[in-house]
């Protein structure tokens, strides 16, 4: 058994415990105290902010204690807009000799928290191993495994009489085929695992408008035309080999907005092991920015942006800073920056147009560079700009290469490239940030409407996946792009019919070969076809021939058959 396989087993076991806790909460099990067993922290999670991107994660606080007599979550009083919800005082906790916190008068929690502790420990070992560092315990285990393999190889040679036919294999590193177990495999079409369809049939024309995995990969968030944000847990059957028992997914949380949802995003330091970091930011028409608790589904806080006339305005785009300390909100010719720890109306104003120069139009999307203190803004004026995180000054304004307003942009993991897509535009452009304004190559997809069509990159930055208006899912290998950057059109390595309707949402799991996609669009009835008569009834508007596919689907994009064998 190799190191990555052992880590994967413990990692998935820890996630299963965390998601089961959220599932119990959604069924009506309320906490006597929403706080954790450790000291109460602010909205932004102060312990997470001091953690650097390259450092190993610290052990998160244990999950909250469950009250013996369950109460309904809906009985909690609604929070007041602009005020942070008081999470109360923590219950009494004791610390075991093993270093694991145990809540008093709680049955079944110690075993679960031991699994969580092992998961955090192995996850830390994984990141240290990828960074080239070898912890002492991990190095000792590798030495023991190597000694065992050498002993087995020597025994086999003795059985064969010391002949040279048997090749000695003492390499503890996984082979190429074994290394692909945790990676994506797009040499063949992904397989459908499960999804959610019945949830979106209760309301007419309730099509989906996007989906996003949580940063820790434990759940997925969806947005739909009924203005409800839904949270789905990762199916527990995926943690075992019983994939044949997978059933249709049901949301564990529903968060209703008052009007059309403009944008939504996860807190970047979100971890299911720390409920204080589990929250979502969303913006809707004629409403302030809402902060939703992703563990209980209630409203936690609000950010209220006001314009120069002291009128409440709605943000068209949202994006947290990489450390989670700030929330950037896009408006018409301006970006407002709120501090996560201080809900309310106080914010920093960063105009994008100064003395009639700069980036005009509504800031429709934003993204932060993973390697440099800069962020990118796309606008409906078909422009893309780079800004400094320190003071918001404009660093570069890209030329208007898109045919429509920019709706989505994404940095590559190394921070050297920026991918942008627009509405009613068939191209995804790859910009070279080492030479701002230079397009390296373009990716072709079919986008014939104003709907926002998302695309996503895998954690390595190699594969870019996107849907289109016709329901197809396309995968491009960015490593096959020409190095000279002559703006050639890169052909997809895989393209298949994922949905019968518009595939607008694509999200890749942060560490598992899973792809989430969602579909749907606004349908317009057309006059019925009539071959035999021209009666008035035949000319009436009908929707019988409309092809609808409103659903959320999970796809397995790893090597087929390898998971069950493992």
Q: Could you please describe the fold and organization of this structure?
A:
Helix 1 (3-26) crosses helix 3. The termini are close together. Helices cover 14% and strands 30% of the residues. Mean pLDDT is 74; it is low at 1-14, 23-42, 44-125, 127-142, 159-181, 529-533, 537-544 and 562-566. The strands form ten sheets. A five-stranded mixed β-sheet has the order 22-23-24-25-29, with no helix packed on it. The chain has 566 residues and is of the alpha+beta class. The chain has six helices and 35 strands.
Structural class estimated from helices and strands: alpha+beta
How many helices? The count is: 6
Widest beta sheet: strand line-up: 22-23-24-25-29
Shape: globular
Mean pLDDT: 74
Main beta-sheet annotation: 5 strands, mixed
Terminal CA distance: 10 Å
Beta strand %: 25-35%
Helix content: 10-25%
Say how many strands there are.
Answer: 35
Runs in which pLDDT lies below 50 for 5 or more consecutive residues are 1-14, 23-42, 44-125, 127-142, 159-181, 529-533, 537-544, 562-566
Radius of gyration: 26 Å
